[in-house]
Design a protein that fits this description.
By secondary structure, this protein is α/β, with parallel strands linked by helices. The chain contains eleven helices and twelve strands. It has a single domain, classed as Luciferase-like domain (TIM Barrel). It is globular.
C-alpha cells in the first residue's frame, strides 16, 4: 500500500504555524509528516530556520497517529551517538512512531558559516556510511563497539531502547555509486527529492543492483519520493526561488486529476511513499488539493 505524507520545511515560520500545519495534515488523513535539517533557509534567501531535532520532538508530541520522520539529518552536524539517543527519545515521545533519515549533507554555506568542515564527497559519504552503521547498532544492540576513521564507539550503550524493535532508518540522496550502495547495505528506506518518475525508476533499478551485490533483498528497502506542489508556473518560482528550475522535474502542477495521474506515474515507477514537500508561507488550499488527489489513490 502506498504511503502518502507531507514533508514540512522549517524556514520562515513560527512554531504555532507549524503546529497548526501538522494538525491540518494529520486531520486530512496523511500517513506521514517529516521535517528537514537546515540552519538557514534551503534556498539561502534567508536565515530564519528552526532546529531539526527540537522540531522533530515537537512533531512527535503534537501528533497522535502519523509516522514522524526526518528527511534528512545531516551526518556531519551531530555525532551519531547523540543522534541515536535523540531519536530514541523522540520514539518514546511519539509512542513508537519515529523514523530516522540520514544524508551526507550538501549545504556548503551552512557548513562554512558554522565552522563545520566541508570535505569532498568521498569523505562526507564515508562519514554517512560509518554513522548509519553506528546508529543502527546503537538502536538495536545492547552494546556497540565500532572503529571507523570518523566514528569510534567503545562499549557504547543507547538506553532505553526505542519502543520500536527496529526503528526505520532512511538514507536520502541520489548519488548512484555511493549513496545508493549505502542505502542497499544499511537502510530500511531510500528517499530522493524532486526527480521525474522515469528517473526514479532508473535510480531504483540501480539501488536493486547494489542490493544484489551486497546480498540484500530489495523488498526490505522502501522507496520514497519527495515532490513539490504548485498551482501554476508563477507559484513554482515563488515557492522555490533560486532552486525552482532544479526541482521542476519533481513538482506536481495542475488539477486534482492531473495530480492523480502524476502520482500514479510515481507509483508505477516503484514509489512506496509519496511526500508532498511544502514550505512557508503555507498555502493550505494546496494541501486540500493534495488530499483530494491522494484520497483517489488510496
Amino acid at each position: 500500500m502506498t504511503v502518502f505524507g507531507v514533508h514540512t520545511g522549517l524556514q520562515n515560520t513560527d512554531i504555532d504555524a507549524l503546529r497548526h500545519l501538522w494538525t491540518r495534515i494529520e486531520d486530512a488523513g496523511f500517513d506521514w509528516i517529516s521535517i528537514w535539517d537546515h540552519f538557514y533557509s534551503a534556498d539561502f534567501n534567508g536565515y530564519s530556520n528552526h532546529e531539526a531535532v527540537a522540531c522533530h520532538a515537537a512533531l512527535a508530541c503534537h501528533t497522535t497517529r502519523v509516522r514522524v520522520g526526518s528527511l534528512v539529518y545531516c551526518a556531519a552536524y551531530r555525532h551519531p551517538a547523540v543522534l541515536a539517543n535523540a531519536i530514541t527519545t523522540i520514539d518514546h515521545l511519539s509512542g513508537g512512531r519515529a523514523e530516522l533519515g540520514l544524508g551526507a549533507g550538501w549545504a556548503e554555506p551552512e557548513f562554512a558559516a558554522y565552522g563545520i568542515p566541508f570535505p569532498g564527497p568521498k569523505e562526507r559519504l564515508d562519514l554517512l556510511e560509518e554513522s548509519i552503521q553506528a546508529i543502527r547498532h546503537l538502536l538495536r544492540e545492547e552494546v556497540t563497539n565500532f572503529s571507523g576513521e570518523h566514528v569510534q564507539l567503545t562499549e557504547a550503550r543507547c538506553e532505553p531502547k526505542p519502543l520500536q524493535r527496529q526503528l526505520p532508518i532512511w538514507v536520502g540522496g541520489s548519488g548512484e555509486k555511493r549513496t545508493l550502495r549505502i542505502a542497499a547495505a544499511w537502510a530500511d528506506g531510500w528517499n530522493v527529492p524532486f526527480v521525474a518518475p522515469a528517473e526514479l525508476a532508473r535510480k531504483r533499478a540501480i539501488l536493486h543492483d547494489h542490493c544484489a551485490a551486497v546480498g540484500r533483498d530489495p523488498a526490505e528497502i522502501r522507496t520514497a519520493i519527495n515532490v513539490g506542489l504548485c498551482e501554476n508556473e508563477a507559484a513554482l518560482a515563488r515557492q522555490f526561488g533560486k532552486v525552482a528550475e532544479l526541482v521542476r522535474p519533481g513538482v506536481l502542477i495542475g488539477s486534482p486529476d492531473q495530480l492523480v495521474q502524476r502520482m500514479g506515474d510515481y507509483i508505477e515507477a516503484g514509489a512506496d511513499q509519496i511526500n508532498i514537500a511544502i514550505r512557508a508561507p503555507w498555502d493550505l488550499s494546496l494541501l486540500d488539493l493534495a488530499t483530494e488527489a491522494t484520497d483517489q489513490l488510496r
